[in-house]
């Protein structure tokens, strides 16, 4: 059991500007050129050994320049996953026996390496592999991941300090054990920070992990694994397996020692994994912990008192940064008619038309491409339907072109029918659906926002009238796990806006918070009696 020592006080990592002429811009450009010139074998890392998976090979490309292959990976086979599970089990006794401070030191060192010599590498990998602009890479693969590692150590320390009361002659203690088995972390393409956090949070609490990142995040995942090794992570604590994941569900989720799933990705995948776990319930030694943060259909509501300039910027940044590929992205907006017709319509159209999506290695672009051909096809199909149907006004955008990369233009669709699919479906791309309502209908619109989708992730209200803010806060209490007032619904910061949603958006365990870390321990209560009774009788017996 761990002694409780102080840990360094975490502070959010400052965001670098990369403005023209700055030394950080020159250094990042050099890292981008270097990584773009390599062709990497994205191997698995199992028990510390690197080896290509045994299944079909897959090229990993730059989404904005799809002819440019960054490297090759391969589908994990059931044997590959069984090897990773074995390695996680073998490493468990030594890892959980290591005092907390020693485990924490590895993540603190990883954070410092990332804040320093590894920053350019992870940012460059995220720019090239996931088509993020410099700004979007910096807030993700540098700042958020550094914050996850530093803040989690401080949260874990608070958790370990939690101890029960003790009466006279008795000492009660909590032994904050890791889970009784291994954890599976399955991570999405869109955030390098999430991919780095999901395996390391359970590891910090003493668990060993099988980590399956997304194929389209292979480049940044590969360098994250190398960074953790450089920080001193022992072999077998985190075992990276590659590919699309079917073998992970088939083998790891069916193992009797499977003890927890740490997932972020789509609602559809999470439901599939949950059903798979349910089908193996009788084989598990313990009930697995299930943490899943999933999709969203995130809203902005603008009251008649909204500040038009703040609203326009909130909509543009909220909907179109990182091509709308944030689970938190604004994808449906409900705007009071007086605000819409009073200038927001024109401002939103003009600003959206001025955004450039292009090759993100040219740092002047606002954004890049959507992640792959599947995401591209989904958007191209939607545009075809919208043009054919003719019920929505295409205020701007509505086109897609994959001749160079998977480019989808930032698009604003205006619709009279708020039940249309564009107000209910998560497309995960740069599409903002707008419904304009009569100013007097604000209470009705709040009800509509609450009831029209299955999700409950993020949302924002824009209003300067405090009554309108309060009304929205009450009416939308269960509509969003992260609620914003006069701000865009994206860009949560670790330690400041703990992130996660409920309903179809997940288990709301708030990544990067004490609530999340609590899911990766299984406390044991210990009672010690210093002078035990030596007679079985009680006073009332005479
Ligand atoms: N709520 C949040 O915090 C949050 C954060 C980021 C992304 N997301 C959501 O993630 C989605 C986008 O990410 P994505 O496209 O990578 O999601 P996805 O569900 O397609 O994939 C997520 C991960 O699951 C794996 N996977 C898919 N099928 C599997 C199977 N049968 N067995 C095992 N693994 C399997 C994928 O390979 C990937 O690693 C969006 O819906 C977005 O809203 C949510
Ligand atoms: N935490 C991020 C979103 C993560 C999902 O993609 C945000 O707040 O924008």
Set out the fold topology.
Layout lengths: L22 H14 L3 E2 L2 E3 L2 E3 L5 E6 L2 E10 L3 H20 L2 H16 L3 H12 L3 H28 L8 E9 L3 E5 L5 H13 L4 E4 L5 H13 L7 E3 L5 H6 L6 E7 L2 H13 L9 E5 L4 E5 L5 H13 L9 E7 H18 L18 H17 L3 E4 L3 E2 L5 E2 L2 E4 L16 E7 L4 H10 L3 E2 L1 E5 L3 H10 L6 E4 L16 E2 L10 H5 L2 E9 L13
Parallel strand pairs: 1-5, 7-8, 7-10, 8-9, 10-11, 12-13, 12-20, 13-18, 17-18, 20-21
Antiparallel strand pairs: 2-3, 4-5, 6-23, 14-17, 15-16, 19-22
Bound molecules: nicotinamide-adenine-dinucleotide and 5-oxo-L-norvaline (A1AUG).
The site of nicotinamide-adenine-dinucleotide has 32 residues, from α8 and α9.
Please provide a written account of the structure.
This protein has 542 residues and is an alpha/beta fold. 38% of the residues lie in helices and 20% in strands. It has two domains: 288 residues, Aldehyde Dehydrogenase, Chain A, domain 1 (3-Layer(aba) Sandwich); 188 residues, Aldehyde Dehydrogenase, Chain A, domain 2 (3-Layer(aba) Sandwich). It has a seven-stranded mixed beta sheet, with helices on both faces. Strands 9-8-7-10-11 form a five-stranded parallel beta sheet, with helices on both faces. Helix 4 crosses helix 5, helix 4 runs antiparallel to helix 7 and helix 5 packs parallel to helix 6. The longest helix has 28 residues. The model has no long low-confidence stretch (mean pLDDT 98). The site of 5-oxo-L-norvaline has 9 residues, from loops. This is L-glutamate gamma-semialdehyde dehydrogenase. One of its GO terms (molecular function) is L-glutamate gamma-semialdehyde dehydrogenase activity. Pfam families: Aldedh (PF00171).
């Amino acid at each position: 059991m761990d002694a409780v020592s102080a840990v360094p006080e975490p502070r959010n990592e400052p965001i670098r500007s990369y403005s023209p002429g700055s030394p950080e811009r020159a250094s990042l450009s050099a890292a981008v050129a270097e990584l773009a010139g390599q062709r990497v074998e994205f191997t698995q890392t199992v028990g510390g050994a690197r080896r290509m998976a045994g299944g079909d090979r897959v090229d990993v490309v730059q989404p904005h320049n799809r002819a440019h292959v960054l490297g090759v990976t391969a589908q994990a086979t059931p044997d590959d996953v069984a090897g990773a599970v074995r390695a996680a089990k073998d490493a468990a006794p030594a890892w959980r026996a290591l005092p907390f401070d020693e485990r924490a030191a590895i993540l603190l060192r990883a954070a410092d390496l990332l804040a320093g010599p590894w920053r350019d590498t992870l940012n460059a990998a995220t720019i090239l592999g996931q088509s993020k602009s410099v700004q979007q890479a910096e807030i993700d693969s540098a700042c958020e991941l550094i914050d996850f590692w530093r803040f989690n150590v401080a949260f874990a320390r608070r958790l370990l300090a939690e101890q029960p009361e003790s009466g006279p002659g008795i000492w009660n203690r909590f032994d904050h054990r890791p889970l009784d088995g291994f954890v599976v972390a399955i991570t999405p393409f869109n955030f390098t920070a999430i991919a780095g956090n999901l395996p390391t949070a359970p590891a910090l609490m003493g668990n060993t992990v099988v980590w399956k990142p997304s194929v389209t995040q292979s480049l940044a995942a590969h360098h994250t694994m190398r960074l953790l090794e450089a920080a001193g992570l022992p072999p077998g604590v985190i075992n990276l397996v590659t590919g699309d994941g079917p073998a992970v569900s088939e083998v790891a989720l069916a193992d009797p020692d499977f003890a927890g799933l740490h997932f972020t990705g789509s609602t559809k995948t999470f439901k599939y994994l949950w059903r798979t776990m349910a089908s193996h319930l009788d084989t598990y030694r313990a009930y697995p912990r299930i943490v899943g943060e999933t999709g969203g259909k995130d809203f902005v509501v603008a009251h008649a008192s909204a500040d038009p300039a703040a609203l326009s910027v909130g909509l543009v940044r909220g909907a179109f940064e990182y091509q709308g590929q944030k689970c938190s992205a604004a994808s449906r907006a409900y705007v009071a008619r007086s605000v819409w017709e009073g200038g927001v319509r024109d401002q939103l159209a003009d600003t959206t038309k001025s955004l450039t999506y292009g090759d993100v290695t040219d740092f002047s672009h606002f954004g890049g491409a959507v992640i792959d051909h599947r995401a591209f096809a989904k958007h191209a199909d939607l545009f075809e339907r919208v043009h054919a149907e003719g019920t929505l006004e295409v205020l701007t955008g509505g086109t897609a072109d994959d001749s160079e990369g998977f480019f989808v233009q930032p698009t604003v669709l205006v619709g009279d029918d708020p039940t249309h699919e564009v107000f209910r479906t998560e497309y995960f791309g740069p599409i903002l659906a707008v419904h304009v309502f009569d100013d007097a209908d604000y209470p009705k619109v709040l009800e509509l926002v609450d009831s029209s989708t299955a999700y409950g992730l993020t949302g924002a209200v824009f209003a300067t009238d405090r009554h309108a803010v309060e009304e929205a806060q009450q009416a939308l209490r269960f509509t969003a796990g992260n609620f914003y007032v006069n701000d865009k619904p994206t860009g949560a910061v670790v330690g400041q806006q703990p992130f996660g949603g409920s309903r179809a958006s997940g288990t709301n365990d708030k990544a990067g918070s004490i609530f999340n870390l609590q899911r990766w321990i299984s406390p044991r209560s210990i009672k010690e009696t210093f002078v035990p009774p030596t007679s079985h009788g009680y006073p009332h017996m005479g």
